């Protein structure tokens, strides 16, 4: 995606993303539109990703682009479970553990076959309600997965 070295965002930057990227509501139509936007962005980049949007335990959107595999679906589920458990982006959760000098796998006491604090899953937060779901991408390096989701959320929410 980018030819320049990736700069890892700080915890403060990641937390600011979560405070900023909040929906007034999140409907089935919103899930379709956001998922379609992610597909469009991924196709422009020829990104071999799978995309998933869940709300309240229900899958509202899923797409698997060329080059993705069943492994991406497994990663999606593991990253989404981190968002559902912690109420924060999977990348941010992993960064919080690393900031304490440890890793999610070492210190969370959660099964790494079930949970993955790797970038790419972001909470769907509704004003006055809280986290109601997650939008997840898998197939790129974790920071790129995270950035793709954030870019789509920023574009989608700027239109609303």
Automatic annotation (TrEMBL):
This is UPF0303 protein IAG44_25780. Belongs to the UPF0303 family.
């Amino acid at each position: 995606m980018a030819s320049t070295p990736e700069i890892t965002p700080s915890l403060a930057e990641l937390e600011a993303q979560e405070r900023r990227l909040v929906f007034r509501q999140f409907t089935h139509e919103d899930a379709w539109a956001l998922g379609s936007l992610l597909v469009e962005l991924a196709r422009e980049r020829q990104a071999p990703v799978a995309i998933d949007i869940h709300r309240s335990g229900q899958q509202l959107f899923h797409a698997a682009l060329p080059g993705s595999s069943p492994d991406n679906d497994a990663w999606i589920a593991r990253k989404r479970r981190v968002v559902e458990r912690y109420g924060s982006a999977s990348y941010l959760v992993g960064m919080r553990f690393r900031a304490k000098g440890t890793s999610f796998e070492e210190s969370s006491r959660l099964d790494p076959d079930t949970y993955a604090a790797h970038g790419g899953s972001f909470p769907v937060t509704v004003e006055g309600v809280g986290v109601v779901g997650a939008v997840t991408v898998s197939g790129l390096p974790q920071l790129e997965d995270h950035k793709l989701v954030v870019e789509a959320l920023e574009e989608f929410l700027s239109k609303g």
